[in-house]
Amino acid sequence: MELRDLRYFIAVAEDLHFGRAAERLYITQPALSRQIRALEAELDVQLFQRTKRSVGLTVAGQTFLEEARQIIRQTEQAVSNTQRVARGEMGQLRLSFTASALRSIVPKVVSVLLDRYPDVKLTMAEQCTNDQVEAFRNGQIDIGLLYPPVDEKLLSVAPLCVENFVVVLPRNHPLSLQKQLTLRDLATESFILHPRYEGPNFYDQIIHLCQQAGFHPSIVQEVVHSQTRIGLVAAGIGITFVPETLKDTNRTTVAYRNLQGEAPSLQMAIAYRHDHFSPSVQRFLEVIDETIKKPEISVA
Asked: Which of 6, 60, 117, 255 could cysteine-pair with 68, CB 3.0–4.6 Å?
């Protein structure tokens, strides 16, 4: 039995006239009659009651009509869904991002994506860069918003924007009275930094900038998560640096100050596996391209 046989049967069942049904199907009436008889023989069931003047459905034919329509609807839905998945209008997309991206890039991009493609099932998770790279290796995410460089040959990485960092001080710190600071102003402070193993590029950048300012920083803690570092600053453990997008958090217990001159910064980038370039990934990249102004540089 083929789908064509079901469509032929449905046409006759709806018109209850072989001639009109044949015209609708663009076949001859004898050919249609042969197809219906062959279908009845295959099912070993009489589907139609025929007289010289009329055609009617048997009880079995009425049941088969409901089932045939359901099969056709399901088939058409399957075809439609498959085509939509192939276009990236349906499917699953697993997105991972850094804490700062959640407050900058993610809300706008996700809003546009879901408004445009509401049938894409989006799952999201906040992860540091190293964890994202590991998740890519394990096939657990499709798109990552992270900080390069990353040493991973599986990934294609493209720059998005530059994130500037600000210094975080205890609210009652004497330096909080100044609107802007220099790195030299921090020479005698205790530093709480992001661990080097997780972000060697940023860690080395801070050390280098401090040395350029004439001192080597006194590092008392190394903590991955920005919010935890901010909490330690509020407790008076030391000072830290966070992306400018995070400077509205915990304002009652800490102070955020911009740095004059050269300040720490990071390149935010988008990453995906080049061996798993799905239509949903393509749609996400298109939305990113529309909503985020990219710098005119490339990331290897």
From this structure: 6
